[in-house]
């Protein structure tokens, strides 16, 4: 029975996800005990008279969307380069500025202008990420240093693009993307996460992205001798991160119907890196599991929403968050993992010898 | 010798007692040691006994459990069963960490030197073992000098470690180890990166330590070395103890047989096997004036079904030649023809597309993708050749992996096992499987037999001959000339980055190769 269970877990590849899953379960349990009302899902009627789901859970799932999407891209960059991109928030501000300026520039928002703006936004984000990718893969600069450049100047670039104002755009299409589509009570950003997830899953299915990325992340030299081009693989990971950043910046823009170069996706890079780590991925690169990072994103957001629901003010939240995160990250550290593995091993030895003894007698 | 010992009298045990007495003094007893890893029993009820003043060789093929036993002894791994007793310690020795082992008098020098190359010799000898925060380095230097002199280690205390040769670095590591009140000295493959002269220097030091009463556990792959210095041999196979033998009572051939658990006839069979000489005349690969950033221009050709090899001393340019053929280094010039057609090979991917496979010299650095599974490692090259947009089906991967695990007899718990956790010989087989799976026309094997056990070495040599019979062309490089003479029908001899001769037919004798290396050969490009 036990063995079968283990095999099932192995087959599902859940091993790495045990810690984030446990953390999530504990958070849910904590809320259940604290206040079962936390789980209440209500149906509100919004300004335009459409039903919209509300409540803490919906709020978690909704507001984690940008983070979850960026965490997916961050996972790939981490796996391929063994480093992290800290410019995602700043690049997001740039691509959001391009998005909104394109929309405004074309006058009225229609399906076609939206598509043009989206494409411009994606192209911008990918171009800036390629700049990062070039520094990292061609010039072999440490990812954190390379991306520090756009981290520090990206929001200034966004400021130039927006022309120092906070451009606004008012259109039911934009609200539909940022809030809900009339008739569908679930917030649209949730579908965007699923969409990006599906696109990436499709890419993984029809290409060797996973195998190549992991090989390069684990042993670049050996990967090269097997015909893989490490530079191309790293560029690809930055390109896909660019795509993720673009989508996240569109969501963030549409939520507010405006772009503020100062606050759009601010501080998201650290949460994204954290999500990757909580998901059980090594920040040193190599093997990765994207679902872990997505789970990490929801855990972080759930934590924030829980603390808010407990009435802790937003200044103190970061400190409380830090404590919980220390516990999660420590639980996933190699030291604790090895301890647990050793414990399990010892148990299986005693089982083994018990079986042996049984057979002998 | 006497006066040397007087200079550093506190270093070693009192050895005034007779040598015969010393021989029987047991310093270390390991009984019934078992160690379980997920899926495998790495050690199963193993006993090991070390006496004072003896050099005790621990022998076995890769995966036999030597390293695991050493790691249990030195506290790197915990044991799952058994007991360790050390002379002078009541009851079971409390070894739970490398520090505990050190305190109990067990010192280890690993294969890869684990000192800090940019510190001085003295700093390396005393770092991490001074009391308190304030260190009197002057004092340490004095002490270091005493140890270096007493052990005849040709290094100065103030010298930066990286300026010493590998052998001297190794000796410094030993000096550090024995200074730490050491009863048991473990040397894990100490000679694998040393040349002959350096090895004899190291052996002198080992004999010296032995005469001072230190018990030495010597792990190595080199059979000759075992017979040169050891007093006793313990043989392991598949995690089990085969036996303990005095060296004089165990002829070399018998030792090999015991390590492999095979019949002696198997070994002799290969010695007699005729070299494969290809009858075909089609040239599979031809290079004219090929050069890379690491290799001066050279000419090279290989026919279908031919086995040839590059030979020469370490660093003579053997590996650089094949790396140039495979496009692993940056190519700077030359014309290349594959099956008569002019082609350009400037990176590994292009070489692969033209049917060339390359097993690199440094397995850990260039070969395995350690964290990936055995399966992923096997299918990697084929997958890359099929292309980025044509991923294999999972079932296909599994079938390929199964096929080659069986065919090459790869010992692994499952296809999902990370390849890094396999023993060296099995890792090598995984990389071989990777290239065989691509069905190359031309396979380059650079040191495929280095650092692996005798049994696997023979398997690989047999495989090379079999592949040639199936019309594959193979370039085989080995530091052991006997291996090359056994398998190659043509040898390209190199010296200092140049081709200095090409031997075929009757010229293929050890004497001839040596002569050519030494300068008797015809000068080529």
Query: What is the mean predicted local confidence, pLDDT of chain B?
Result: 84
User: CATH-wise, what's the superfamily of the largest domain in chain B?
Assistant: P-loop containing nucleotide triphosphate hydrolases
Fraction in beta strands of chain B: 15-25%
Shape of chain A, please? globular
Poorly predicted ranges of chain B: 1-23, 520-525
Strand order of the largest sheet of chain B: 5-6-7-3-8-9
The residue-averaged pLDDT of chain A reads 89
Features:
heterodimer; A: 361 residues; mainly alpha; ABC transporter involved in vitamin B12 uptake, BtuC; two-stranded antiparallel sheet; 16 helices; 2% strand; globular; B: 525 residues; Rossmann fold; 3 domains; disordered C terminus
Characterise the protein shown here:
The complex is a heterodimer of chains A (361) and B (525). Chain A is mainly alpha-helical. Chain A has a single domain, classed as ABC transporter involved in vitamin B12 uptake, BtuC. Chain A is built from 16 helices and 2 strands. In chain A, strands 1-2 form a two-stranded antiparallel sheet. The longest helix of chain A is centred in the middle third of the chain and has 27 residues, at 111-137. The radius of gyration of chain A is 22 Å and the shape is globular. Chain B is an alpha/beta fold and 525 residues long. Chain B has 3 domains: 2-261, Rossmann fold (3-Layer(aba) Sandwich), CATH 3.40.50.300; 272-355 and 440-520, Rossmann fold (3-Layer(aba) Sandwich), CATH 3.40.50; 368-421 and 429-437, no CATH class. Helices cover 37% and strands 24% of the residues of chain B. Chain B has 20 helices and 19 strands. Chain B has helices at 2-7, 19-24, 66-73, 98-103, 121-126, 137-150, 166-179, 196-211, 223-229, 252-260, 264-272, 318-326, 348-353, 363-367, 374-386, 394-407, 424-437, 454-469, 481-487, 510-520, and strands at 26-37, 40-51, 55-59, 81-86, 106-109, 184-188, 215-219, 232-237, 240-246, 283-292, 295-303, 307-312, 331-338, 341-343, 356-359, 442-446, 473-477, 490-495, 498-504. In chain B, the strands form 4 sheets. Chain B has a 6-stranded mixed sheet with strand order 5-6-7-3-8-9, sandwiched between helices. A 6-stranded mixed sheet of chain B has the order 15-16-17-12-18-19, with helices on both faces. A 4-stranded antiparallel sheet of chain B has the order 11-10-13-14. The longest helix of chain B has 16 residues, at 196-211. The radius of gyration of chain B is 25 Å and the shape is globular. Chain B starts with a helix and ends in a 5-residue tail after the last helix. The A-B interface holds A 10, 205-208, 211-212, 214-215, 218-219, 221-229, 286-287, 341-342, 345-346, 348-349, 352-353 and B 34, 36-38, 78, 80-81, 326, 328, 347-349, 352, 358, 360, 365-372, 376, 380-381, 383-385, 388-389, 391, 416, 434.
């Amino acid at each position: 029975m036990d063995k079968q269970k283990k095999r099932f877990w192995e087959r599902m590849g859940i091993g790495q996800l045990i810690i984030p899953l446990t953390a999530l379960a504990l958070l849910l349990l904590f809320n259940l005990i604290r206040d079962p009302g936390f789980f209440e899902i209500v149906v509100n009627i919004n300004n335009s008279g459409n039903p919209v789901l509300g409540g803490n859970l919906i709020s978690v799932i909704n507001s984690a969307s940008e983070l979850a999407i960026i965490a997916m891209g961050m996972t790939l960059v981490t796996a391929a380069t063994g480093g992290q991109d800290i410019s995602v928030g700043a690049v997001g501000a740039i691509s959001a500025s391009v998005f909104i300026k394109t929309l405004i520039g074309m006058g009225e928002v229609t399906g076609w202008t939206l598509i043009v703006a989206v494409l411009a936004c994606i192209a911008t984000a990918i171009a800036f990420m390629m700049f990062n990718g070039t520094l990292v893969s061609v010039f072999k600069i440490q990812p954190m240093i390379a991306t520090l450049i756009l981290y520090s100047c990206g929001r200034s670039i966004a400021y130039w693009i927006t022309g120092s104002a906070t451009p606004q755009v008012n259109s039911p299409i934009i609200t539909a993307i940022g809030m809900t589509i009339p008739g569908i009570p679930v917030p649209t950003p949730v579908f965007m996460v699923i969409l990006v997830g599906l696109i990436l899953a499709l890419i993984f299915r029809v290409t060797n992205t996973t195998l190549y990325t992991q090989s390069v992340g684990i042993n670049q030299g050996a990967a090269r001798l097997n015909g893989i081009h490490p530079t191309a693989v790293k560029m690809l990971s930055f390109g896909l991160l660019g795509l993720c950043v673009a989508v996240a910046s569109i969501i963030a823009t549409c939520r507010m119907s405006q772009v503020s170069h100062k606050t759009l996706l601010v501080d998201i890079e650290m949460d994204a890196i954290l999500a990757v780590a909580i998901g059980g991925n090594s920040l040193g690169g190599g093997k990765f599991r994207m679902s872990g990072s997505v789970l990490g994103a929801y855990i972080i957001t759930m934590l924030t929403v829980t603390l808010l629901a407990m009435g802790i003010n937003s200044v103190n939240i970061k400190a409380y968050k830090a404590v919980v995160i220390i516990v999660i990250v420590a639980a996933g550290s190699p030291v604790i993992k090895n301890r647990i593995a050793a414990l399990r091993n010892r148990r299986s030895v005693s089982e083994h010898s018990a079986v042996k003894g049984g057979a002998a007698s | 010798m006497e006066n040397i010992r007087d200079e550093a009298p506190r270093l070693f045990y009192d050895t005034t007692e007779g040598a015969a007495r010393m021989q029987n003094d047991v310093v270390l007893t390991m009984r019934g040691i078992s160690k379980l890893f997920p899926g495998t029993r790495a050690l199963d009820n193993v006993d090991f006994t070390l006496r004072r003043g003896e050099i005790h060789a621990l022998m076995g093929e890769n995966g036999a459990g030597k390293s695991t036993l050493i790691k249990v002894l030195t506290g790197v791994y915990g044991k799952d069963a058994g007991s360790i007793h050390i002379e002078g310690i009541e009851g079971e020795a409390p070894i739970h960490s490398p520090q505990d082992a050190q305190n109990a008098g067990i010192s280890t020098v690993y294969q890869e030197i684990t000192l800090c190359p940019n510190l001085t010799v003295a700093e390396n000898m005393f770092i991490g073992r001074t009391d308190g925060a304030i260190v009197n380095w002057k004092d340490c230097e004095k002490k270091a000098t005493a140890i270096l002199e007493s052990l005849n280690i040709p290094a100065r205390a103030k010298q930066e470690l990286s300026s010493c040769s590998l052998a001297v670095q190794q000796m410094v590591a030993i000096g550090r180890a024995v200074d730490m009140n050491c009863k048991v000295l473990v040397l894990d493959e100490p000679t694998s990166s040393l040349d002959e002269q350096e090895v004899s220097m190291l052996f002198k030091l080992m004999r010296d330590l032995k005469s001072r009463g230190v018990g030495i556990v010597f792990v190595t792959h080199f059979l000759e070395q075992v017979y040169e210095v050891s007093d006793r041999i313990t043989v392991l196979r598949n995690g089990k103890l085969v036996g303990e033998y005095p060296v004089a009572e165990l002829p070399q051939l018998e030792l090999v047989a015991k390590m492999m658990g095979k019949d002696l006839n198997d070994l002799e069979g290969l010695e007699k096997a005729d070299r494969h000489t290809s009858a075909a005349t089609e040239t599979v690969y031809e290079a004219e004036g090929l050069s890379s950033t690491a290799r001066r221009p050279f000419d090279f050709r290989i026919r279908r079904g031919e086995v040839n090899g590059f030979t020469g001393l370490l660093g003579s340019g053997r590996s650089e030649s094949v790396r140039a053929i495979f496009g692993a280094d940056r190519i700077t010039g030359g014309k290349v023809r594959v099956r008569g057609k002019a082609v350009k090979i400037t990176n590994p991917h292009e070489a692969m597309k033209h049917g060339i496979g390359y097993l690199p010299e440094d397995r850990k650095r260039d070969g395995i993708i350690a964290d990936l599974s055995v399966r992923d490692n096997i299918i990697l090259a084929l997958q890359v050749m099929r292309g980025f947009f044509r991923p294999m089906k999972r079932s296909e991967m599994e079938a390929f992996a199964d096929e080659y695990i069986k065919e090459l007899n790869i010992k692994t718990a499952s296809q999902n096992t990370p390849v890094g956790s396999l023993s060296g010989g099995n890792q090598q087989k995984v990389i071989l499987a990777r290239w065989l799976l691509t069905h190359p026309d031309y396979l380059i094997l650079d040191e495929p037999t280095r650092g692996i056990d005798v049994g696997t070495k023979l398997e690989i040599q047999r495989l090379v001959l079999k592949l040639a019979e199936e019309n594959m062309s193979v370039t085989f490089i080995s530091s052991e000339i006997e291996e090359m003479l056994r398998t190659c029908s043509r040898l390209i001899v190199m010296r200092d980055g140049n081709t200095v001769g090409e031997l075929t037919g009757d010229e293929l004798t050890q004497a001839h190769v040596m002569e050519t290396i030494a300068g008797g050969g015809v000068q080529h490009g």
